[in-house]
Amino acid sequence: MQEASWKGYRTSVLNHSVPAEFQFVCPGQGGACFRPPNQGTIYRMPDRTTQRLKDLRNGLLSLHKALLDSERAAYERDVERITSKGQYLNLVLNDPWFHWLHDLSQFIVLVDETLDFKEPATAEDADRLIARARELVSPSEQGAGFARHYFEAMQRDPSAVLAHRDMMHVFASLFAPQSG
To answer: What percent of the chain has pLDDT over 70?
Structure first.
């Protein structure tokens, strides 16, 4: 039962709605922290910069999955059926058909590494990563590499267009003023 209530508090923290009785200022660190009931560990609440980077990462992960699904369908249509998860993984990692997606994969890793730094990312770090992500996910008919392949995926697959739209909503929310 205690585990179930802890999960609820963890979910609340991720949604920034920790009950006031569990919030306090972290000594010597500034910023809000919380202590779940009956727990000795103090957890730092995500600040706005961290949350922006997590939102960016989650949006990019959704886009990446949609593009992988799109490329898999095109590969199976044009080349051969993929018969196992192992074969699919090997193709994604090594086949030139999927190579263009590595730029997006590597960028997501960069965002994850930034989130894992011992020192928290600054607002300027987040702004730079968001700007780079916007540049990366800009399709271009005349472009090369990722931009060109991204454009082609959007031309052939409506789900890629919808994933792009969702990513544009994420970008808009990253610059929206925060209430509260």
So the answer is: 72
